[in-house]
Every structure is written in C-alpha cells, then in structure tokens.
Amino acid sequence: MTPAPLDDLTAFRALAAERLGSFGHTTVPDAPGLRRAGVVLCAVEHEGVPSVILIKRAYRGRNAGQWGLPGGGLEDGETPEQAALRELQEEIGLAAGPADVLGRLDDFPATSGFAITPIVMVLDDPGPLTPSPDEVHSVHYTSLRKLAADDTPKWVPQPDGGHLLQMWLGPDWRVHAPTGAMLWQFREVVLLGRHVRVADFVQPDWTRR
C-alpha cells in the first residue's frame, strides 16, 4: 500500500514538489523602505511523525517572544532562499542546501515593513538541533496531520467586519499572521492541494514590533 503523504516524509516530498511546481507564487514588488526576509517551512520526521519546525523567538529584540519560522532578513546580494537557509543554520543549527528546497509560497507583506518569502523544504536526516539562545527561546514541532486538521484554523470576528486567523496547534498554542498566514497557505496549497492567497490577512497590532 502506498504511504500517505501526511504520514511519510518521502511521500510528502514527492507530493509537495508536485503541488509547489504547479503553484504560481506572488512576489511583493520593490518599494521605498521595503525590506525582505526569507523563512523556512522545514518538514522533518519528529518522533516518527512528519512535522514542521516552528520556533518561539527569544524574549529580546525584534518579534520578542513571538511564534515564528526559522529565517530572517536578507543580507547584501542574497536571495530569499539563500537568506532562509543561512538563518536556518544560524538560528537552530540545521545545515541545508538548494537540493533540499521544494519550492516557495507567496511573499507575505508584513505590517513590520518586511516582505517575507516562505521557502518549503524537507530534511531527511537533520541531525541534532543547536538553537541560538540569542535568537531562539524554544523549538517546537507541529505534525502535518495537525496542520491539515479541520479544527486547526479558526477565524475570529473583528469589529471592522474582518476575521483574524488563529492556527490552533495545541491547547495553548495559537499562531497568528504573518506566521499563521504562511502556515495556513502551506496547509492549503501543499497539504490539501487548494490554491489560495493570504496577503490580505489581518495581522495583530503587536506583530508590528
């Protein structure tokens, strides 16, 4: 019997490469004051279960204490992919290269002034994590099945008539945009095969910091 992509990393890689290959991602155009960043949606096997790595940022500096994906701002001459892979190693000690990358999702225009490019990749044998205490408070895993579950995304009504996305990854683990929006697009495009956009998702005021 063919392994299910949500339960087998090899099967997931093949499916993700196919779906990302047919997905026409959007790019935020350059503009005065715009800064760019690359982040990694990195799938690994954790305790026998295909999962995506998330971090809680250190309680200092930019985005203090917020949920995030490994990644950061571009240095001179870098592409978003190069920045994302560099930051993956600097922040949590995982070495990866272009061959591990399966594709990318839409740039997300964060209210902090960054256009964030999500890079999707798989690591079969990532080795031990070595989080940088200057940048990372803790490292966490969410399974592909949890991301795909019907009750994971919740939409909270707002006074202006909009809805705020919360990705409920655990009883006390709720992730908002920008990271929540990128996780939701990963879920929809890669796990469920539905082409969706997220650039207009509501972002909480505290994500501006």
UniProtKB/TrEMBL annotation:
Keyword Disulfide bond on entry: no
Boundaries of every Nudix hydrolase domain copy: 34-164
A GO term, aspect molecular function: metal ion binding
Entry similarity comment: Belongs to the Nudix hydrolase family.
SUPFAM superfamilies in the cross-refs: Nudix
Organism whose genome encodes this protein: Actinomadura darangshiensis
UniProtKB keywords: Hydrolase, Magnesium, Manganese, Metal-binding
Co-factor(s): Mn(2+); Mg(2+)
InterPro entries linked: CoAse (IPR045121), Nudix_hydrolase (IPR020476), NUDIX_hydrolase-like_dom_sf (IPR015797), NUDIX_hydrolase_CS (IPR020084), NUDIX_hydrolase_dom (IPR000086)
Annotated protein name in UniProt: CoA pyrophosphatase
